[in-house]
Amino acid sequence: MVHLTNYSVQKYSKNFSQYEYGNEVSFAEFQAFLNIEYGYKKKLVKNDLWDKFIELIKLSCNSVKNKINLNDRKHCFEIFGYDFIMDALFNVFLLEVNTNPGLEISSPIISKLVPRMIDDSLRLTIDKIFETRYSFDPNKENLSYQSPYPVDGYTNSENLWYNII
Question: What's the DSSP call for residue 94?
Fold first, then answer.
């Protein structure tokens, strides 16, 4: 039950949803907890911790980049699910990478993130092939497209995917 990010394991715990629905909190909620718990903004989730997540993702992707798409297929992509764990000193560790991440709508947070993630991933891939009006160019803001899947803390015209390699 200590696998912090794995809903499919946690849902069997007697403590499931004891503190927050689905045992999941947004970055803003986690930041608010840190502010209250520590009495000051010692760590900023969207800066300090997010950068650690991205660095670990970069390391893992770079370590296997020569093993992905060995047949050099054009127009393909894969979505990975990353699970992290953090200690009391805010050291972030990569727990696992899922090649088949769960997309179950398990909480209000996930019900917003999954549809937006899928929509944004298709804007970066399929829409780009066909050059639709929904295509996303990461080098310029696409104000003509407004995502029908709003996510708190992000504009509806930006894509939530990061180019990390």
Answer: E
- Rounded Cα distance between 84 and 160, Å, is 19
φ, ψ dihedrals at 157, nearest 5°:
-100, -10
For domain 7-102, the CATH class is alpha beta
Q: Which SS3 state, helix, strand or coil, does residue 134 take?
A: coil
Annotated domain spans of the chain: 7-102
Tokens 């907890």 belong to residue: 33
Measure Cα distances from 80 to 54, 64, 98 in Å.
13, 13, 6
Mean pLDDT taken over the chain: 82
- Is 60 exceeded by the pLDDT of residue 4? no
Please say whether the beta carbons of 164 and 65 come within 8 A: no
**pTM across the whole model:** 0.79
CA distance 130 to 135: 8
* Position 93 pLDDT exceeds 90: yes
Dihedral, 70, 136, 111, 5 alpha carbons, nearest 10: 40
